């Protein structure tokens, strides 16, 4: 077996790789488990490839897959999924279906935004190898614990030993007096007892409440006591001041404050005042609620006045200017300036004790237990009288009512969860902490990529992870964090550049003719456009985009950028090596047919929007424009090329050798006519003119009158922000009206006439917009987007690049941001005119 070089001797070789985390070398070394996992860029990554990978040789490569389009609905109530919280996850069972489809046993799967490592879990369960990386140290640490083999017996023994030591050390902090009718009340306070004694119960949780100042009389108002109805579990929108009886809302009140010396940082701190209002405890086999009494208040005071004998993190929150990040909110985070302010002192003491004993044990995996209780033990654990307590997802929100739980008991429960969540992994993994913009892998070295990248400003990962990472003493290097974040001075442009760099790396390391699957979770069309642009500019060809219907567990196909309110799954492939080389050599000249042939071979042998003539033309056009090659085909000559070289059936186009498979698919699915086919595909979103025409093109394979078309079209159409002609105009200008019924053009002449008519109308509208842009400095807020796209295509072919830029600079930025086709023409025009 090859002897690995110590990580300590290799740190300098990876220190300049983008995403190297912020922390001391000794802490990075202590947290790492080389060669499987390093809390920095993994220097053993290419050794892993040499051991497990298979070299790509095009002459002998017979790989072929169509995009995976089956149902991937998977629940999240799984021990593995729930063992450790994280900002976002894809269930490993869902990922397994993709890996099984696209790979063979022994193949290498990569995920550069790995999060908690579910891609690795999925790969190992299928006897594949996995390379995982993420910018976040906590993400890769969690991923390591999910993916590295663990001796459960040894782990449980060590964890329970630490639990006993912490109970002996700190158990007294969760004692409370049990006061039930006819039972003796103990008045002698013995805080040092660590076991339940006679007359004392064990605290399960304490509820804390904000205190406000009455707008009218200036007296204090305890929010819990006056705004919460404990019987119904409801929180009143309006409540009365107990002193002056005035009615008010929380937003009308000022917070009461308290100032104290924070001995941990040696500063005076002013924060919102909170008081304990309810204690839930166990006594014998029963649970009780009580109002904190003198014993409880004295216990809290004793803890507050004591010095914690253990290390705990006191890092300033990620301060940028006067705020520590985009998750900062005035009022909500009043006086919360350092990480330890997110914890009550009792919790800090106990977690510090845990941290100390884990360090002494030397088992880094036990830190997983500490980080798994961090959020639930913090002030993020909001009390909800009408539901279970929980952290508000995607933010560092601190509620007016907080449940401070028994952290020792929480630690005990997590031991059981960890043991039940572990799988029999094979250690076929390599995990590193670095940016996806800089992957230290050789070209053409991985067999498949499944990834769930950050999407715009959905989540501020580094800020949300800061509480966890502070306990690890290693935090995210945000320089290349791919987010839209004001505090980091990153807008859509910066996000776009970082995403493109990441997909460039994905494209480089993926073997030719292989697939990448991207999960997408964002409702902003501008971000969706960036994802599409980044993938296509890097060289990938998108073959299938679908939206998961979580209620139905099914997919709806997507054609446009406006349809992103649900989770999308994007399937794209890297072209074959010989095609890329040939295309480059001939600058695309005469290769239109070969491109369509290649693309059709990567589409599923079933009804697919990608097989419509409109989508095929758009795909070919984009491929040429992105590479600044001459486009010789227009829509009419393209359709003629299709008819001369490919097979059409049920309005979809196929390579001749795919037709038999399509027939087998129809037979298997019992699809007899076009109406049956249509039912399987026509639930697609109609959000603009392009998707409307595709829908109508499929729907009108047989003649139908307007009364039949209109209600069906209305069910799927949701067009906004685009001056798309109404349904009647679309029908009159793009279809054939016979005997008061509309149908598709069936002959070459009919298609030619309809296409010329449509293009003439679009060009006329474009020229009107261009004149308006040249004659006025006012922004064009709305327009017919298809007219602009066609006009840009026309100008591109005629080399009128300046006209593209003139109109682009007059259009509202939202129009451009939400459409990848417009972006492609504009960027090429900028390159041609301005040389950058």
Summarize the structure.
The chain is built from 31 helices and 27 strands. With 836 residues, it is an alpha+beta fold. It has an eight-stranded mixed sheet, sandwiched between helices.
Keywords:
836 residues; Rossmann fold; 8-stranded mixed β-sheet; 7-stranded antiparallel β-sheet
Q: What does this entry look like structurally?
A:
This protein has 836 residues and is an alpha+beta fold. The chain folds into 3 domains: 7-55 and 64-149 and 422-570, Vaccinia Virus protein VP39 (Rossmann fold, 3-Layer(aba) Sandwich), CATH 3.40.50.150; 153-420, no CATH class; 760-836, no CATH class. The protein contains 31 helices and 27 strands. An 8-stranded mixed sheet has the order 17-3-2-18-20-23-21-22, sandwiched between helices. α8 packs across α11 (345-361).
């Amino acid at each position: 077996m090859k002897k690995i070089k110590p990580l300590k001797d290799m740190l300098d070789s990876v220190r300049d790789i983008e995403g190297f985390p912020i922390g001391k070398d000794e802490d990075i070394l202590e947290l790492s488990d080389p060669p499987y996992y390093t809390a920095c860029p993994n220097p053993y990554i290419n050794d892993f490839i040499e051991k497990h990978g298979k070299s790509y040789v095009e002459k002998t490569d017979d790989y072929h897959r169509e995009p995976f389009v089956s149902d991937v609905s998977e629940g999240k109530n799984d021990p593995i999924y729930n063992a450790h919280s994280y900002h976002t996850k894809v269930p490993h069972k869902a990922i397994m279906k993709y890996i099984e489809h696209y790979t063979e046993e022994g193949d290498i799967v990569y995920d550069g935004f790995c999060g908690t490592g579910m891609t690795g879990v999925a790969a190992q369960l299928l006897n594949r190898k996995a390379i995982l990386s993420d910018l976040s140290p906590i993400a890769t640490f969690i991923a390591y614990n999910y993916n590295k083999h663990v001796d459960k017996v040894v782990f449980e023994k060590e964890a329970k030993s630490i639990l006993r030591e912490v109970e002996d050390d700190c158990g007294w902090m969760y004692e409370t007096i049990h006061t039930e009718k006819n039972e003796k009340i103990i008045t002698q306070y013995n805080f040092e007892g660590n076991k339940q004694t006679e007359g004392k119960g064990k605290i399960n949780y304490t509820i804390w409440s904000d205190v406000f100042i009455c707008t009218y009389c200036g007296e204090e108002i305890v929010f819990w006591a006056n705004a919460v109805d404990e019987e119904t579990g409801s929180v009143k929108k309006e409540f009365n001041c107990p002193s002056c009886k005035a009615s008010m809302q929380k937003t009308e009140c000022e917070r009461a404050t308290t100032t104290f010396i924070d001995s941990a940082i040696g500063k005076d701190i002013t924060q919102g005042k909170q008081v304990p209002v309810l204690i839930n405890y166990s006594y014998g086999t029963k649970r009780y609620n009580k109002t904190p009494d003198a014993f409880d208040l004295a216990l809290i005071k004793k803890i507050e006045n004591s010095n914690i004998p253990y290390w705990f993190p006191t890092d300033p929150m990620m301060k940028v200017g006067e705020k520590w990040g985009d998750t900062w909110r005035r009022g909500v985070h009043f006086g919360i300036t350092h990480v330890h302010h997110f914890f009550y002192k009792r919790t800090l003491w106990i977690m510090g004790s845990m941290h100390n004993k884990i360090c002494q044990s030397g088992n880094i995996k036990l830190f997983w237990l500490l980080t798994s209780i961090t959020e639930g033990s913090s002030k993020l654990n909001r009390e909800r009288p009408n539901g279970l307590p929980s952290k508000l997802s995607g933010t560092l929100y601190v509620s007016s009512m907080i449940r401070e739980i028994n952290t020792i008991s929480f630690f005990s429960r997590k031991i059981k969860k960890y043991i039940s969540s572990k799988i029999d992994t094979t250690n076929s993994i390599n995990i590193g902490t670095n940016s996806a913009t800089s992957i230290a892998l050789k070209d053409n070295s991985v067999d498949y990529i499944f990834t769930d990248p950050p999407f715009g400003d959905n989540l501020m990962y580094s800020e949300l992870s800061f509480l966890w990472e502070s306990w690890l003493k290693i935090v995210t290097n945000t320089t290349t964090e791919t987010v839209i974040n004001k505090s980091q001075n990153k807008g859509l442009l910066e996000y776009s550049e970082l995403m493109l760099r990441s997909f460039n790396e994905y494209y480089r390391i993926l073997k030719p003719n292989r697939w990448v699957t991207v999960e997408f979770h964002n409702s902003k069309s501008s971000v969706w456009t960036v994802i599409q642009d980044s993938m296509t500019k890097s060289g990938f060809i998108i073959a299938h985009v679908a939206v998961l219907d979580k209620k139905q567990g099914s997919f709806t196909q997507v054609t446009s950028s406006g349809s992103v309110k649900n989770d999308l799954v994007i399937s794209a492939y890297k072209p074959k090596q010989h095609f890329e080389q040939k295309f480059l050599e001939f600058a695309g000249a005469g290769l239109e047919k070969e491109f369509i042939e290649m693309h059709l071979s990567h589409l599923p042998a079933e009804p697919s929007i990608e097989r419509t003539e409109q989508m095929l033309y758009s795909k070919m056009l984009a491929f040429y424009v992105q590479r600044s090659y001459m486009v010789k085909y227009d829509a009419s000559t393209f359709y003629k090329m299709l008819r001369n070289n490919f097979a059409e059936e049920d309005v979809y186009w196929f390579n001749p050798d795919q037709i038999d498979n399509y027939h087998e698919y129809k037979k298997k699915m019992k699809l007899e006519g076009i109406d049956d086919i249509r039912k399987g595909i026509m639930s697609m979103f109609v959000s603009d003119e392009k998707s409307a025409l595709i829908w109508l093109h499929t729907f009108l394979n047989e003649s139908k009158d307007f009364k039949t078309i209109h209600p069906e079209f209305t069910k799927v159409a949701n067009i906004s922000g685009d001056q798309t002609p109404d349904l009647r105009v679309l029908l009159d200008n793009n279809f054939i009206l016979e005997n008061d019924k509309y149908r598709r053009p069936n002959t070459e002449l009919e298609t030619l006439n309809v296409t010329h008519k449509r293009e003439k109308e679009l060009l006329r509208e474009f020229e009107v917009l261009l004149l308006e842009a040249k004659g006025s400095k006012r922004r064009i807020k709305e327009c017919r987007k298809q007219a602009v796209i066609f006009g840009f295509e026309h100008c591109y072919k005629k080399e009128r690049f300046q006209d593209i830029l003139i109109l682009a600079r007059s259009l509202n930025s939202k129009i451009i941001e939400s459409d990848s086709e417009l972006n492609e023409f504009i960027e090429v025009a900028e390159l041609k005119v301005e040389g950058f």
